[in-house]
Amino acid sequence: MFSDTTSMTHNRLQRPEGLVEVILIPLDVTGVQVDYIELHYSIRPQACELDLLTALAPTLSSGWGKRLPGTVAACSEVLRSHRSKFNSNNRFVPILDPHNPADLSRCEFRVCAMMKEGMTVKTISETLSIGPTTVRSHLSSIFSKTGATSQVELLHLLNRNVDADRGFAQIAG
């Protein structure tokens, strides 16, 4: 278990407003790739809460290692709503807008930004030092929150720009 003060990678990232503490619980370490749970706190966790997380970490890690491939993706698919949460008023708002209209987590936002730059799942996983399965899990959650049903559709959504003078969306050039 790591706090945000012990992780150089996470120290470089911009801290969202109201975030006081970030705790990482490693689930699986394979070479340079790490699958982890990232917990965000708006108030500093108490010692008893940290003790509980420390006690739970080995169980979470063990359970993660015993999961069947595709389990996380299958559960996400069941929960997925193919309607966009943030675009219900028929007005296009960019997914990577500073106001975060899709309510993406920090990791999901990073994955979207990297996808928009043309990175593949493999490149993203290597850059963030996480497993490709974790990247796909983030993508599944992103699909759910944006209404996209595939990486291609997500890329189209990420590359749309709003032409404010004409009131319609265009693909970025």
Task: Give a description of the structure.
The chain contains seven helices and five strands. It is an alpha+beta fold and 173 residues long. α4 (106-116) packs across α6 (132-146).
Low-confidence stretches: 1-12, 81-88, 162-170
Count every beta strand, where a strand is a DSSP E run of 2 or more residues: 5
- Alpha-beta classification: alpha+beta
Task: Give the assembly state of these chains.
Answer: single chain
Please count the helical segments: 7
- Overall 3D geometry? globular
Largest sheet: 3 strands, antiparallel
> Termini, distance in Å?
43 Å
The pLDDT mean sits at 77
SSE topology string: EHEEHHHHHHEE
Q: Which strand order spans the largest sheet, edge to edge or round the barrel? A: 1-2-3
Roughly how many Å is the radius of gyration? 18 Å
Sheet-strand content, in percent, reads 15-25%
Give the helix proportion (percent range).
40-55%
Question: Mind sketching the topology for me?
Answer:
Layout: E1 2-3, H1 8-11, E2 21-30, E3 33-41, H2 47-66, H3 71-79, H4 106-116, H5 121-128, H6 132-146, H7 151-158, E4 160-163, E5 168-171
Antiparallel strand pairs: 1-2, 2-3, 4-5
Helix pairs in contact: 3-6, 4-6, 5-6
